[in-house]
Amino acid sequence: MTETDEDLLARCRAGDEAAWQALVSRYTRRVFNLAYRFVGRVDEAEDLTQDIFVKVYQSLSRYRSEEGAFGTWLTTVARNQSIDNYRRRREERRRRVDDEAILDIVPSTQEGPHKSLEREERVRLVHQGLRALPPDLRQPIVLCDLQGLAYEEAANILAIPLGTVKSRINRGRLELAKRLLGRAERVGA
User: Fold this and answer.
1) Which CATH number fits domain 113-181: 3.40.50.2000, 3.40.47.10, 3.40.640.10, 1.10.10.10?
2) Is the CA virtual torsion 126, 127, 132, 133 positive or negative?
3) Which end of the chain is more exposed for a tag (fewer CB within 10 A), N or C?
4) Does pTM surpass 0.70?
5) pLDDT of residue 79
6) pLDDT digits (tens, 9 = 90+) for 142-185
7) For the residues 89-94, what does the mean pLDDT come to?
8) Are 140 and 148 spatial neighbours (Cβ–Cβ below 8 Å)?
9) How many Å is the Cα radius of gyration of the chain?
10) Residue spans in the chain of domains classed CATH 1.10.1740.10
């Protein structure tokens, strides 16, 4: 039988870390999806999700069950944090663009032809190295590192335990690095 939000909150307020972890895992997907809609990038949404949960944890004493469900309150806090983050970022972009002098100093973001070729070659070599990995090591890396899925999502897709996903990603990355370093040494020799 799963505990209600109210039970978990009571335990959180008493300092029970396991209760906090249960609440976080119960609402992570909801908060992440909201954050992602505001920032549009997985890495930034993950950072914003963490910031939101920090804010929620710091504000737990302000939540009153008489005012509505915990999930609704948490979503409101998440939305407000996301809006604040959006405004902060917009203001930072405006300040950067408004300063005309900085535009003369900032180097161009366009790659030269050599850089572009080098990048394309690196991408080709990494994809070649990935194809050479055994499927059980390659699949978690593709899902998490290339497609940006969380480890938990990869575990669900692959129908394997979370710990197995993490260890396969670690082993796969090491194997990929060995292959790429071995190739670089053969080319350099």
Assistant:
1) 1.10.10.10
2) positive
3) N
4) no
5) 93
6) 888 877 888 998 898 889 999 999 999 999 889 888 888 876 66
7) 82
8) no
9) 22
10) 5-97
